[in-house]
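Data availability excerpt. The first of two example chains:
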Amino acid sequence: MRARLFSLLMALPGLVEAAPANPFFAMDTGTQGPPTAAASTVAQLGFTGMSVNAHNFPAFMEPLKANAMKLYAVYFTTALEADKPALDAQPALRSLIEKLSGSGSTLWLGIRKITREDVPLPRADFPDVLLAAKLSEIAAYAGEHGVHVSLYPHAGFHIERVEHALNLIRQVAQPNLSLTFNLCHWLKVEGPTDPAPLLSQTLPYLDLVTVNGADTGDTKSLPWSRLIQPIGHGDYDLTALLRTLHVLGYRGPIGLQHYAIAGDWKENLALSMTGWQALP
């Protein structure tokens, strides 16, 4: 299997010289099976590390260390209770922050919804000034433990737009709170619009980016199977996005999103690594 992956990886000439310089990591949305085997495959393919979900991050710590890879981020989604302090209402979040202390990993935070007595509130019924206060509480506790927090805009979540996340971060104004740009969620939420103007505003707060192959067109209505593909598939101009980030000065990590891509996950990762290395 290793030889097959290597042959897929090296299918195009001159790949190593062509690859973007940013650290390139694999999200665990694109892996399967035991963490030991997943981490080994990711390392063999040349990724610099991984991001993992909060529920499985302890199991990945040793395999990643054994393969000399970095754990870039730990993904956690939550609902915040409108009338309770954020960490009191979400003890799992408090516990995760404590576990991440000293790990060097970013807390990837997705805010799914705001509830009152378990009933989701419309965005209009919960002003951003109140949400910023809750994020400030989270960021302050994370800061006490040396943990960086990055907001993860996600289609269908309370915080689904990059601009919304940016406005909240500016209100909170804590140095350990930043944001992530996710290509597939941008396409789903914003449609086929140029992200460059907003990326230029987010750059001071941008610490992670996730990409994948995707199709263009009416992306708001496209299924996820067309918005999340291996790199090199789909007709979205990923090269243009990466050049924009480079020109703006972004040199941070870039993650590979492979959520629910059909087929053999190892071959899919190899295809994306080949596509990544082939980017001009």
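And the second chain:
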Amino acid sequence: MTDADLRTRLSGCTRFQQLLHVDRCPSTQDLAAEQPGGSCVVWADEQRAGRGRQGRTWWGSPGDDVEVTVRVEPVAIERPERVAAAVPIAILAALETCVARPLRFKWPNDVLADGRKLCGILIDWSGPAQGRYLIGVGVNVNRSHFPAELRDKATSLAMLTGRPLDREEVVFRLAASIDAAFDVLAVAPGSRGDRAGSYARLLRARADWFGRSVRVERAGGAPLLGEASGLDLEAVELDTRDGPVRLPLAAIAAITRSGERG
């Protein structure tokens, strides 16, 4: 697929009427923020200063991987706290169509296959009720080798499928899935047409710590131990020694199975 084909497909069935593909840039997240107009898709063959969550660096393989930022603007969502769970799950669903197998979601921003990182996600938000979202996605697509320190920690779509993939097709599937997620999130919860439950069900199915004993790392608070007995797009319900607790997902830095290293 060419960029022209990708632009035509995006403009024909999603909100994304703008597509920018560059050879290299410091960060697609920053480049997308600078673009005029509304919703757009910005991707690069090489990022020189790609960033992940909490200031971490994302390292891609130039020309092999997908490093893309999808900007959604303006969008009105009654419960913005749902974005942090629904959008990563939509990204996971798009990647599952590429590999035809279930993947795992590691809260808050990693998609894993066989315990190895396939994709990282960064969500930036700004604005009042009708805000702007920058969804940064880094996917290992066609690389077949990793540095020694990552060989047991990372994988790619090509390694999982045994064949190279069209990167433009991957960009399209990611953007289309994110677009659909925001359409769902724009519907008032509990109203006719509310389909957010499908994302919550997939979240529960792909979070392999759900229904198990877990350790929850909270922003600004002590870790909690308990069984993850409930989970939706807004919170996890934890059965602790001191009783049940409902924790907003937005305040959770990490959730791991007890005894598992994060």
